[in-house]
Design a protein that fits this description.
With 275 residues, this protein is of the alpha/beta class. It has one domain (12-267): TIM Barrel (Alpha-Beta Barrel). Helices cover 20% and strands 15% of the residues. The chain has helices at 101-106, 127-136, 154-165, 198-216, 226-233, and strands at 55-56, 88-92, 98-99, 109-118, 122-123, 140-146, 177-179, 221-224, 244-247, 265-267. Strand 6, helix 3 (154-165) and strand 7 (177-179) form a beta-alpha-beta unit. The longest helix is centred in the C-terminal third of the chain and has 19 residues, at 198-216. The protein is globular, with a radius of gyration of 17 Å.
Length: 275
């Protein structure tokens, strides 16, 4: 497939700098069930999986993770990457336990997002190992924050996140990411929109992304699902300059939220095999 750049926000090259200059092996591996699978914008696809026994899965403490593609999200989960997307990546959290990043790299992953924080009360205990494990094996890596708009302000959560995300502008660290989706089961947060009005939700997200821009100079990658975004933000179209990580476990990314004409990452399944 001929690479096509995104039409809004930063180009894909700003999230995967010099990608073609540092190829990794493309060994296909059987995938354990992880929390995601993604695809790099109109140029690439990703999935959330690693080789069979690359993951030691221990019981996580209750907390959320990027898994918005199922709830109202589309058709059946795919077992393998859609055709035409040669670049794969993963997103991980404490829900995967200890990860063997050498096997992830050998299975073909080229980039990874790791959960860093949630609200202003939780830091993922596996984040440091995941971030540096990925980078140490030639994988472009970045941090994500699981939003809890019912517990504190967007600005406060952005500061909590950035104080722990280890973001540096080194050409190998991905843009900070906001995971904004349905509350996780057992969180106690009002479902589905955390008890906020559409206007309040838009303001909360804006406070978060503006604070990230103030502190890092980067636009925030926004991870969401159209079926959450539309009712909970009122289909707010004002965030289109931020790169979009669309979650939809189906054969295509489907309809995008208002304000975006293309996506940068697509989470197309939560299990499968790396291409």
């Amino acid at each position: 497939m001929t690479p096509v750049g995104v039409t809004r926000g930063d180009s894909p090259s700003s999230f995967l700098p010099h990608l073609k200059e540092n190829p990794l092996s493309r060994t296909t591996g059987r995938v354990s069930r992880l929390s995601l699978l993604v695809a790099l914008a109109t140029t690439t696809v990703v999935m959330t999986a690693v080789a069979g026994n690359a993951v030691d899965r221990r019981g996580p403490v209750p907390n959320g993770h990027a898994h918005a593609g199922t709830t109202g999200g589309g058709g059946p989960m795919l077992a393998a990457a859609p055709g035409g997307y040669p670049i794969g990546g993963i997103d991980v959290s404490n829900h995967q336990g200890t990860i063997d990043w050498s096997r992830v790299a050998a299975a073909g992953a080229r980039f990874a997002y790791a959960k860093a924080t949630e609200g202003v009360y939780y830091t993922d205990p596996y984040f440091n190992a995941n971030l540096h494990g990925a980078k140490d094996h030639g994988i472009y890596a970045g941090a994500y924050h699981f939003a809890r708009p019912d517990t504190s302000s967007g600005r406060a959560q952005a500061d909590y996140f950035l104080d722990r995300a280890q973001y540096i502008n080194d050409g190998r660290t991905l843009a900070p990411m906001l995971d904004i989706e349905w509350p996780w089961n057992g969180s106690g947060s009002p479902y589905p929109c955390y008890g906020l009005s559409t206007g309040q939700m838009g303001s909360w997200i804006r406070d978060f992304v503006n604070r990230v821009r103030e502190r890092t100079g980067r636009r925030t990658m926004i991870y969401t699902n159209v079926n959450w975004w539309t009712p909970c933000t009122g289909n707010d179209a004002s965030f289109g300059e931020n790169p979009l990580f669309i979650a939809r476990y189906a054969a295509s990314p489907g309809t995008l939220p208002a304000g975006w004409s293309t996506w940068t990452l697509w989470q197309y399944a939560d299990a499968g095999s790396l291409p």
